[in-house]
């Protein structure tokens, strides 16, 4: 493949992605996963549109093959980490945001529900075990939410409150909720691409894997990430810094595609990055 067919701008959509969405980016490049996904089509799902930009999804069949990969069902592997409707199972993704759903008093307004439905695209899943999950998409971000308590599909009005499950410290829980609230930002404002350190490491691993899969060299990979002039200079000089960086990025990408994506779902982030 020509180096011109792989460019950094085509990854810019991912700068706000959470770790759970990055996990999908690596999984959807796994050849064994793609073989499995090819055997399952959209006819296995019931999908219907409801009010207030809410899409309701329910599997029509068991999803044993998808569950082997940690998924509630097979999303479209051709869709990226923002566009794909990827629901991770609780067993592989314990660090997800939780919403406690309860009855709403007469005349009471649930601010979370009103705000979420006004600014987010919402996908509601009832999985094969009857659990209710949400994907909230807004402002270039995606957050998976597990619902407990009353059903969101109940006829009577409900109210919600955010929780975080797991053994994280109070500070880590605060960061996860803070990052999750990024979905409420004004998506109409064009923000400059601003990669966090953690996201940049994942992006470079993804780019390096794509270059490797396309048959490009480490030098070609460096040219994609840093530009041809800097790559040529680095390869002509005595320093091995950039060469070693590209090798680490490639090896990390191969590891994540091969199954290491699961680590992104269970490890608490060392830096601020959405859940």
Structural topology:
Elements: H1 19-27, H2 31-38, E1 45-49, E2 54-59, H3 64-68, E3 97-103, H4 111-119, E4 121-126, E5 132-138, E6 141-149, E7 158-164, H5 170-180, H6 197-213, H7 218-226, H8 228-236, H9 241-257, H10 263-266
Helix pairs in contact: 6-7, 6-9, 7-8, 7-9
- Uncertain residue segments: 270-275
Report the β-strand fraction as a percent range. Answer: 15-25%
Kindly, what is the distance between the CA atoms of the first and last residues, rounded to a whole number of angstroms? 34 Å
Number of domains as seen in the coordinates: 2
Q: Rg to the nearest angstrom?
A: 20 Å
User: Averaged pLDDT, please?
Assistant: 88
Number of strands: 7
Query: How many helix segments?
Result: 10
Biggest beta-sheet profile: 7 strands, mixed
The shape is: globular
Structure description:
Helix 7 packs across helix 8. The model is unreliable at 270-275 (pLDDT under 50). The protein has 2 domains: 3-26 and 192-266, no CATH class; 40-184, no CATH class. 36% of the residues lie in helices and 17% in strands. The chain has helices spanning 19-27, 31-38, 64-68, 111-119, 170-180, 197-213, 218-226, 228-236, 241-257, 263-266, and strands at residues 45-49, 54-59, 97-103, 121-126, 132-138, 141-149, 158-164. Strands 1-2-4-5-6-3-7 form a 7-stranded mixed sheet. Strand 4 and strand 5 form a beta hairpin. The protein is globular, with a radius of gyration of 20 Å. The chain is an alpha/beta fold and 275 residues long. It contains 10 helices and 7 strands.
């Amino acid at each position: 493949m020509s180096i011109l067919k792989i460019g950094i701008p085509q990854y810019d959509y991912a700068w706000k992605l959470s770790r759970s969405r990055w996990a999908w980016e690596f999984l959807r490049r796994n050849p064994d996963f793609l073989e499995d996904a090819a055997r399952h089509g959209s006819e296995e799902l019931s999908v219907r549109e409801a009010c207030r930009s809410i899409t309701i999804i329910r599997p029509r069949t068991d999803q044993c093959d998808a569950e082997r990969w940690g998924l509630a069902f097979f999303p479209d592997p051709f869709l990226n980490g923002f566009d794909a409707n990827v629901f991770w199972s609780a067993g592989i993704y314990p660090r997800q945001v939780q919403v406690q759903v309860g009855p709403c008093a007469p005349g009471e307004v649930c601010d979370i529900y009103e705000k979420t439905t006004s600014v987010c695209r919402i996908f509601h899943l009832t999985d094969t075990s009857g659990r209710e999950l949400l994907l909230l998409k807004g402002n270039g971000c995606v957050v998976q939410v597990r619902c407990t308590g009353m059903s969101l599909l109940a006829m009577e009005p409900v109210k919600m409150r955010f929780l975080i499950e797991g053994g994280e410290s109070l500070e880590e829980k605060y960061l996860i909720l803070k990052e999750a609230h990024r979905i409420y930002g004004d998506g109409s404002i064009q923000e400059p691409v601003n990669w966090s350190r953690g996201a940049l490491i994942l992006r470079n691993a993804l780019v390096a894997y794509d270059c490797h899969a396309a048959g490009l060299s480490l030098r070609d990979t460096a040219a994609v990430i840093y530009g041809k002039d800097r790559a040529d200079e680095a390869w002509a000089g005595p320093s091995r810094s950039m060469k070693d960086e590209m090798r680490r990025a490639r090896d990390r990408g191969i590891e994540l595609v091969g199954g290491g994506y699961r680590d992104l779902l269970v490890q608490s982030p060392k830096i601020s990055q959405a859940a």
